[in-house]
Amino acid sequence: MEPEEHLLSLKVMRLTRPTLASPLPITCDGKDLPGNLLNVALQQDPTSVAGTETLCTGQFLLLPQSPVNIYLGETFSSYICVYSETQQVVSNVIVKVDLQTCSQRLPLSVNPPTPQLASDETVNIVIHHEVKEIGNHILVCEVSYQNAAGILKSFRKFFKIQVLKPLDVKTKFYNAENDDVYLEAQVQNITAGPICLEKVALDASHLFKVTSLNITPTGESIFGKNTLLNPQAICQFLYCLSPNEKLSADLKSLSGATNIGKLDIVWRSNLGERGRLQTSQLQRMGPDYGDIRLSIIELPNFTVLEELFTFKCKLVNNCERSVELMLYLENSDGLAWCGISGRKLEVLLPHSTCVLEFKAIPLVPGLRTLSGIKLVDTFLKRTYSFDDLGQVFVIINDNVENGKSI
Q1: CB distance 235 to 198 below 8 Å
Q2: Does residue 277 contact residue 166 with C-beta atoms inside 8 Å?
Q3: What is the rounded (10 degree) CA torsion for 332, 336, 340, 343?
Q4: R_g of the chain, CA atoms, integer Å
Q5: More confident residue, 320 or 252
Q6: Are strands 70-71 and 152-164 parallel, antiparallel or unpaired?
Q7: 250 vs 91: CA distance, rounded Å
Q8: How far apart are CA 188 and CA 232, in angstroms?
Q9: Which residues contact 230 (CB under 8 A, 6 or more apart)?
């Protein structure tokens, strides 16, 4: 059975931005065999710019010669034209445009009925849609009309669209001792052409306050005025997330706060064409603080060799019961403790904290690790060891070494 011939024809064209036509620079030294022949030909190329012939810069706009890739986050634009190929007058012309994705069908346009369409007249529609899914999409165009006899006619056409992934985003999380969370994000350009990153921001969860470590104190980007990514190039971004006071006070809630936020990325491609991508909810692996937690709250950056220094730690009871603890100070490499080992601490109530002060004398210069602190639960006979609390840099004071007063 032959397909029915219709009085109207449908044309669909994708609207894409042109590119700059640039010359192919082939040059040689004037002393070579071709002489200046290649240089003169390059200068006479109509697509070259005088004075910059070898820089591949163009001055003419070139329309796409082949289908252009569509990437997730970009805006798909298309021109739809319904053309009357008959001498008859058709009436009530309706054009309906839908986009079928892998998960849903989206209505893009339904024009009001065109009362009459004479010969050689057209119905023109321009649609714009931000692509939010990867994979195959089907553009469905349906045209309905009435012929001169008043009989209702309709036909549909389907156009396949392949949506590709523009960026590859990889993330890493680091849980710091002070409860801050550091997020490292690697953004790779996997499109066919260069892009310029206009915005890479972290929309943090309401439980955290985010600080971008990608800008200088003056507010300028550390990557310069423009962040240009060539195909397959990678750019790294770093963010610091600090929990709010309410969350910091509850270790159980802090450990369960795994949702960090979303990355919002905006870029520009050919001739400033905009693309936007937002990641799914980023999740970290919640730290296990255990029943008893000891963390440094005050520690000098450096100290002098064989001079007493002091640092403070916060002791947290994360249990549902009160605990009695014994404090032991064991020998540490290059560090001598000044204090009583084996002393009993005050009873620590459930989910309460206290501040402990420690004193030590460094015996070896260089970067020293604070270790050798042990707490023993007198009820459960359980031992909690803390061998990597922090680090302090030990320096040698020349005045002391020379026997001079400071």
Answers
A1: no
A2: yes
A3: -10
A4: 35
A5: 320
A6: parallel
A7: 70
A8: 6
A9: 189, 194
Amino acid at 65: Q
Q: Which residue has the tokens 């009989």?
A: 151
- Report d(CA 114, CA 286) in Å as an integer: 60
Mean pLDDT (the chain) is: 85
Spatial separation of the C-alpha atoms in residues 139 and 97, rounded to whole Å: 7
**CA-to-CA distance for 58 and 48, rounded, in angstroms?**
6
**Which amino acid does the sequence have at 17?**
R
> Quick one: tokens of 42?
């390059």
Close Cβ partners of 369 (under 8 Å, ≥ 6 residues apart): 332, 333, 387, 388, 389, 390, 391
Query: Is pLDDT at 2 greater than 60 in this prediction?
Result: no
User: CA torsion sign, 211 to 215 to 221 to 227?
Assistant: negative
Q: Which class for 239: exposed (0-12), middle (13-18), buried (19 or more C-beta within 10 A)?
A: buried
Residue 340: DSSP 8-state = -
**Residue tagged 């997330």 (tokens):** 241
Contact 88/129 with Cβ under 8 angstroms? no
Q: Which two tokens stand for residue 147?
A: 């012929």
Q: Which two tokens stand for residue 219?
A: 């507010």
Share of the chain above pLDDT 90, in %: 43
b (16+ CB within 10 A) / e for 102-138: eeeeeebbeeeebeebeeeeebebebebebeeeeebe
Range in 65-69, 137-141, 195-199, 334-338 with the lowest mean pLDDT = 65-69
pLDDT attached to residue 177: 75
Q: DSSP state, 192?
A: S
Structure tokens at 59: 């001055």
> Judging by DSSP bridges, how do beta strands 259-268 and 282-283 pair with one another?
antiparallel
DSSP conformational letter for 176: -
Two tokens, residue 194: 């260069």
Report the C-alpha gap between 165 and 73 in whole angstroms: 9
Q: Which residues contact 311 (CB under 8 A, 6 or more apart)?
A: 296, 298, 299, 300, 357, 358, 360, 370, 390, 392
* Terminal-to-terminal C-alpha distance of the chain: 106
Residues contacting 237, CB < 8 A, separation 6+: 184, 185, 186, 187, 200, 212, 214
Contact 144, 94 (CB under 8 A): yes
Predicted TM-score (pTM) of the model is: 0.71
